[in-house]
């Protein structure tokens, strides 16, 4: 029995070393945008880049998210079955989070201090790795959302309009160039 236990321990140690040295999927928040402001909530969308180092497609079981501001949880939830990670590739995943206005109203002190909303987004990508089972990729991202001032609302953001016009012009030129080449 002693020999069998030693062999089992040796194999367990070697397997544990190999697993610890294996590449694992990694995730990075690329951008967080406010997509929609409605009467009852603000919808944030995080763009997350997830790298899959394996030769097989990996299903994402669910994404758990928590949005915090001023040390308080203002929104949390689960996104079931958001898709899969492409094999040996980088997959962009859109993670929507809806924050009710009632939660933001409790943050008046933070908003009044610097006229922005400081937030922390905590994500947990729960993926199903073959042989090993469920594995969570934890991710934390902090940022701030600048609120518009009354003068911004009154006159609009001229710089943003100029930026949009330039982007349209560049797209139009690229399209024309592509058509000329064809």
From TrEMBL:
Residues 164-182 have a biased composition (Basic and acidic residues). GO terms for cellular component: cytosol. Residues 27-144 form the Water stress and hypersensitive response domain. One of its GO terms (biological process) is response to desiccation. InterPro entries: Lea14-like, LEA_2, WHy-dom. Pfam families: LEA_2. SMART domains: WHy. Residues 156-182 are annotated as: Disordered. Belongs to the LEA type 2 family. PANTHER family: DESICCATION PROTECTANT PROTEIN LEA14 HOMOLOG (PTHR31459:SF28), PTHR31459. This is Desiccation protectant protein Lea14-like protein. It comes from Capsicum baccatum.
